[in-house]
């Protein structure tokens, strides 16, 4: 990154490049005999030259500017078409297109007029046209340079690092970049026709190779750019499958399935639904055969389950295969039964003895009223959502592999009940959805500490020193604004059972009441918590899930967003303990009521509102 990182308040040295510097430098000679098709190799060559000239050399800013331009990486399917090669956790980065806006565009265009290397011409002209779209001539220069690069790569005059010829990722990306420029210029006829000829010719060539990966690349390109009629594309792909793909029963990998999905996409584009459905069925059978290869292997149950799920998902929307899909679902359940045997528990122990003794000391000898009052405060305040998100982002930066990959969340039977997306590799890549698993994990640890080192310790001391009768708790509950009058006795019974250590009764009594408490608070604040069926002229109370969907701002205003988020993560979210769903549908195990999430229930919700 030499020459690219400077004081944040000062421009980088290469941003001081000027037109007179061009006369000091034999620009085109910089790349003499360079046969690389990769612009970054040109940048490396320039950085090599910087090592042999002095820091005070007058042409140095210009060389650094060109090196920075060539070192940006290509993004063929995105805007802008180039991006910084390096982005640091603190937000600092290497050069990006916007850094060259303004007077530097004139310098870029002046250099372009003196340079012949097609890779350098394509990068400079494309950047100038992207920054100032009025420069149509530079856009045409970029388009023609890309076509020149593709032709030279094909005939061997240029080489792609780590690849053999044009039938690879580099050739595909060059065509994508060229098509993007061509579309931006309004598809000039000569250049657009030439690009379509190239895309069609490369697809037909790769169709007679044995490279399935390249076939996927150029099939998608040909379909997207309409370079080949879709029915011809389908024929090319199916001929390729017949020549190269192993039989589905071999189940060696998912390669055959990927090929059939390509054929299905081409048939759909050709509006041949019958052929598309047939190809989808073939793809699904390949996935199912692949799943069977993992059955019985050490730690193979999750892979078998994954591929069988993929097979079933592939058949979604395909008509006439209901019975087959039913059989695959039964086979999936059989495979899921072996997952628990493959899972390895991971644990970490923490000594909380000092915290336990500290809490015990605070409650020993207190009168019952003071002890109950202190109990409602022992868990502390709920963390603010903004702080949780900030900490999750920091964690994803410090431990990138913890959120780099998408995750599947399974229940006790091995069924996938939720999926969370990848958090990416940078702070800007992380979304609220991708951060949710990290927040859930942190909150689970917080609840565990609150329950084991605080709430449960206080409960044991209180019940050992006092008789917590229904009469005592009833007197408190009836004054709680959260508890509806018609549920006072039931709520009291739930809390008393919790104090007595009957966690099963407490969980199954109090969890359903949470919905009634939220609804009661909304009604007290003048909100309508019902839905109206105009046709039947009937009303129905909203469930708590419906309340979250329709009245979240009102709930936040009453309870505070920190509390509503905690309720959602503990009771409703599939990524968390999902206590409400588990209680309502008898999905919890016998041990769940004695876990940390359930133990934290009463003080963290209803009793805390008293």
Number of DSSP-assigned strands: 6
**Roughly what percent helix?**
55-70%
Largest sheet: 2 strands, antiparallel
* Low confidence ranges: 1-9, 601-610
- Distance from first to last alpha carbon: 59 Å
Arithmetic mean of pLDDT: 86
Strand content: under 5%
Radius of gyration: 32 Å
Tell me the number of structural domains.
3
Number of helices: 27
Shape: globular
Q: Which strands sit side by side, in order, in the main sheet?
A: 1-2
The computed structural class is mainly alpha
Which descriptors would you attach to this protein?
610 residues; mainly alpha; two-stranded antiparallel sheet; 27 helices; 6 strands; globular; disordered C terminus
Any overview of this molecule?
The protein is mainly alpha-helical and 610 residues long. It folds into 3 domains: 1-205, no CATH class; 229-344, no CATH class; 353-609, no CATH class. The protein contains 27 helices and 6 strands. The strands form 3 sheets. Strands 1-2 form a two-stranded antiparallel sheet. The longest helix is centred in the last third of the chain and has 34 residues, at 432-465. It is globular, with a radius of gyration of 32 Å. The two termini are 59 Å apart. 37% of the residues are buried. Mean pLDDT is 86; it is low at 1-9 and 601-610.
